[in-house]
Write a structure and sequence with these properties.
Elements lengths: L7 H20 L3 H16 L7 H23 L5 H12 L3 H25 L8 E4 L4 E4 L10 H19 L3 E2 L4 E2 L1 H13 L9 H4 L6 H28 L28 E4 L5 E5 L11 E3 L5 E6 L1 E4 L7
Antiparallel strand pairs: 1-2, 3-4, 5-6, 6-9, 7-8
Helix pairs in contact: 1-2, 1-3, 2-3, 3-9, 4-9, 5-6, 5-9
Length: 321
């Protein structure tokens, strides 16, 4: 399958270049070309949306994070016009990472079925494959079993268990109708995989499935990032019209946004409050499903910890608008 995916790294590189140029244009007061670069980056990311590979969607999420930096910079420094913000909202509205999560899991199910079929016909390839061992927390090699002793039924049994696990445990995590993602169901799936009793009929699927454990959180974060960005664009449009931010998000619809996006974690309204410096704090409760008051958690290395704290949209300490 790797031969089908040589384009992903160059596409991500394009997003980095477009972001850099958009940031330079915003700094130079050239919002129109900056918008064109942001729009191009979003369109490039959407070109791989239909690909039936989980990794393609994860690269799209990475490209969104890269591109959204330019949107944030333009909002923080009040570079975008009302018309440009409306155009940005239209492009962001088309992004639905909850539905994309469903498609990615279904594609992963099909991919694993194809992999089992390949291994059933070429069992000697097992010894050359790297798997992620959830118990050890690291990659491992499949035991070098004599290929001629592995019956076809062993592959079929593992394929059945892999497919059932994806359909019954991973797929329900994303609710397309409610536009929500359930961390509780994702953690339940993780725990079910960890505690699955090892047998000959699930030994291979126990080595393949752990690679999916972190996927629900990544898709949930992407949808939260879209919802926060759309709300921030509407807030800026309100500020341009009235000279200040509103007291509540409800004031944004329908004049500045058709409908205020909700928090994809839990489905409740996004949290919003004004700050003393005339700005605001806007956030999702994040993967821990707990309102931490708009506090961003950090890892020991200083990067944002997406498992803890809130997923926050706020601006640095700039002059009062």
């Amino acid at each position: 399958f790797a031969i089908l995916l040589p384009h992903l790294a160059p596409l991500k590189g394009c997003a980095v270049v477009l972001r850099l140029r958009a940031l330079a244009e915003l700094e130079a007061g050239q919002a129109e070309p900056a918008l064109a670069d942001v729009s191009l980056a979003l369109r490039v990311a959407e070109k791989i949306r239909s690909e039936p590979f989980l990794i393609s969607h994860l690269v799209r999420i990475a490209m969104l994070a890269i591109t959204e930096q330019a949107v944030w910079e333009g909002l923080a420094k009040h570079r975008w016009t009302d018309a440009q913000l409306s155009e940005l909202d239209q492009q962001l509205t088309a992004l639905d990472f909850v539905a994309d999560y469903q498609k990615a899991m279904q594609a992963e199910n099909a991919w694993q079925a194809a992999l089992y079929d390949f291994l059933r016909h070429h069992p000697n390839q097992l010894a050359n494959m790297d798997f992620y061992d959830l118990g050890e927390g690291r990659s491992t090699r499949f035991p070098d079993l004599p290929a001629q002793l592995i019956p076809s039924g062993w592959f079929y049994q593992n394929e059945l268990r892999s497919s059932k696990f994806i359909l019954e445990q991973f797929l329900p995590v994303g609710d397309v109708r409610q536009q929500t993602t359930s961390p509780a169901l994702a953690k339940q799936a993780d725990e079910a995989l960890r505690t699955m009793r090892l047998t000959p009929y699930n030994s291979l699927c126990k080595m393949l499935l752990p690679g999916l454990v972190s996927s629900p959180r990544k898709f949930a974060w992407a949808q939260a990032a879209v919802n926060l960005a759309r709300s921030a664009c509407a807030l800026e449009r309100f500020r341009l019209a009235y000279g200040k931010y509103p007291e509540a998000l409800d004031a944004l619809a329908p004049q500045f946004i058709a409908k205020v996006p909700h928090d994809p974690i839990g489905g409740q309204p996004l949290h919003y409050r004004l700050t003393d410096d005339g700005h605001f704090v806007l956030y999702s409760v994040g993967w821990n499903e707990k309102d931490d008051g708009g506090i961003v958690a950090l890892t020991k290395g200083g990067s944002v910890d997406l498992d803890n704290g809130d997923w926050v949209w706020r601006y640095p300490d700039l002059p009062k608008p």
